[in-house]
Amino acid sequence: MFLGAGARHAAATIIGAPYDRTSTFRRGSAHGPAAIRWASQSIETYSPVLRADLAEAALGDAGDLDLAGLEPEDAVAAVAAGVGAIAGDSIPLLLGGEHTITVGAVRAVRGIHRDLAVLQLDAHTDLRDAYEGQMFSHATVMKRIVEMVGAEAVVAAGIRAGTREEFALARAFAYCGPQLALPPAAWALLASRPVYVTIDIDAVDPAEAPGTGNPEPEGLAARDVLSFVRRLGALRVVGLDIVEVAPSFDPSGRTAVLAATLIREAVLALSGPRPA
After folding, report:
1. Are 59 and 6 in contact (CB under 8 A)?
2. In sequence order, what are the beta bridge partners of 14?
């Protein structure tokens, strides 16, 4: 159970998606949901920055989806079904697991919000059409999402790795770059639509978040990502995930603690007055 969760009629609901079948460099993100829940017990329910407490937020934890042994396309369908079961009544907060699971979550949420925009915090473009023979993969997740929502509805920050062809495709995004400081037009797009937020933990510099499958140098500072997440209350966020936490590569546990803290700050930011 995630720290502070337990509300029966939850405004936001944690769902674990323990899956890493297409991981290609360092596998282990299937253990991410358990590690993030474990790490949540080490932090306080109170955020001194937001001056709010999880004890006063309606947060639930629906446990983990059963994704063991599934092919990637079937795992995506299972995530879509699990998220779809709660997305109409509660904001789904997905704990990964590899990034592929985001395709299922976006599929479910877009079934409710046809004008959905997607905000991606990530080190990688993830825009390959196929990778190692798989159409559904951690390396193709944003290509599948673009096919659903359109490139003009995607804002991508923290991006610093990808192929030449992927970066060419990303030019059609509302924004794609290494910085968190979004151009006014990109923020205005997000403010005008319901938003799904996907946070790949490798967006953060590996010096602060080493527990991930594909670390990239020159990443975002953890404090800047936390500050950014606290601004999400200004948007109409209808779904959020944190993916690619692979605890076996971080004996210190600080990657999972950061992920848990990001979830706490996101929940509290989204628990305030919401945009219409």
Report:
1. yes
2. 61, 93
In 48-100, alpha helices (H): 72-87
Closest CA to 93 of 263, 275, 229: 263
Q: How many whole angstroms separate alpha carbon 14 and alpha carbon 64?
A: 9
2-24 burial, b if ≥16 CB within 10 A, otherwise e? bbbbebeebbbbbbbbbbbbbbe
Q: Which amino acid is at 18?
A: P
- The torsion of the CA quartet 98, 123, 185, 270, rounded to 10 degrees, works out to 50
Q: Could you tell me which of 230, 267, 198 has the C-alpha nearest to residue 45? A: 267
Produce one character per residue of 40-58: b if its CB has 16 or more CB atoms within 10 Å, e if not: beebebbbeebebebeebb
- For residue 20 the two structure tokens come to 């890493």
Other CB atoms within 10 A of residue 251 CB: 9
Angle of helix 254-270 relative to helix 32-40, nearest 10 degrees, comes to: 70
Per-residue confidence in pLDDT tens, the chain, 276 aa:
999 898 777 999 999 999 999 888 888 999 999 999 999 999 999 999 999 999 999 999 999 999 999 999 999 999 999 999 999 899 999 999 999 999 999 999 999 999 999 999 999 999 999 998 889 999 999 999 999 999 999 999 999 999 999 999 999 999 999 999 999 999 999 999 999 999 999 999 999 999 999 999 999 999 999 999 999 999 999 999 999 999 999 999 999 999 999 999 999 999 876 565
